Amino acid sequence: MTHSAVATDSLTAALDGLVDRVPGAEVAVVLSPDGLLLGRSRHVADQLAEHLASLVSGLYALGQAAGRVCLAGGLRQVVVQMSRSFVFVATTRGGAILTVRMGGDADVGDMAYEVALFAAQAERALPVYLEARTVMGGTSGAHHWRP
């Protein structure tokens, strides 16, 4: 069974508010950078929370790797568009990962705006994660794509 590590009323209210404000938004969860569930909106059952945490952890890792390989900087967001829905993944200022599942006719631009508002509202209820930085000396054998 999945339990939220940070189960505050203010975080739950912020996630519910996000889902309520954005047309097409269905559910929202917040994870730590290592995939630990921190909070969820209403109507997110334990099994769905576990599935989203697993999915988002993989997407987040893939996005981080793409940023490193492409020398593009830190990950800000990942948007997966399917035939009937979107999964929107974005990092907050403190390093937590916000995920929202939206219907296929939702406006991703509206969601990006609302994520900025969410980060400001939920900042007090979320821990701050320090980004681990690794300084690599020499050649690692990885090939970097450059435009």
Automatic annotation (TrEMBL):
Pfam families: Robl_LC7
Domain Roadblock/LAMTOR2: 12-102
Annotated InterPro entries: Mycobact_SerProt_Inhib_Rv3364c, Roadblock/LAMTOR2_dom
Matches recorded under SMART domains: Robl_LC7 (SM00960)
SUPFAM superfamilies listed in its UniProt record: Roadblock/LC7 domain (SSF103196)
Protein name: Predicted regulator of Ras-like GTPase activity, Roadblock/LC7/MglB family
